[in-house]
Amino acid sequence: MRSTLGRVALCAVVLMWGCGQSAEEKQAELQARVAQKLQAEKAAEAREREAAEAASREAAKMRDLEVRQESSETFAKFKTDRPSMTAVEEADALQVAVARVRVRMSDPPAMQARNVRFNTAHDTVCMEVNYKERGKYLGFRQAYVTPDVIWVEPAADDVSHRVFELNFKRMGCEAAAAPKER
Q: How far is it, in rounded angstroms, from Cα 144 to Cα 170?
């Protein structure tokens, strides 16, 4: 870029000597040409930079799409290829899920669980639990357990109650849920 500016300046100086303009006019004209050339180069660089950024964004979108597709294919294959659990393994998994919820309670031995079951995908354990809080049972509430999450339904007036309901439904627990008794 500097060599280009230098050439422009040299050409302008040579042209100024040949013309009958005053030195100040020649200097002003030279500065105007240099500024114009510099502005054009900056605009070209900005266009190139924007084009490179657009290409990078497009490539990132394509990589994201490929990753999502590969992930979907892998999970679909996992679901079809994985062996189903035996009755004993299912019973053990359900007991472990209940035990994971029980451990989180303030009075673990007092917790009651009913309607313990897997969702249709067999990746979440759904149940209803009744537990004591401040010495009193609260009534049966829905709960679900995944390898990463243990969530017991909060009180109806709790801010997170709607989030729980949506996640409970998303996990597939609502479809197999028995009617609630309170």
A: 11
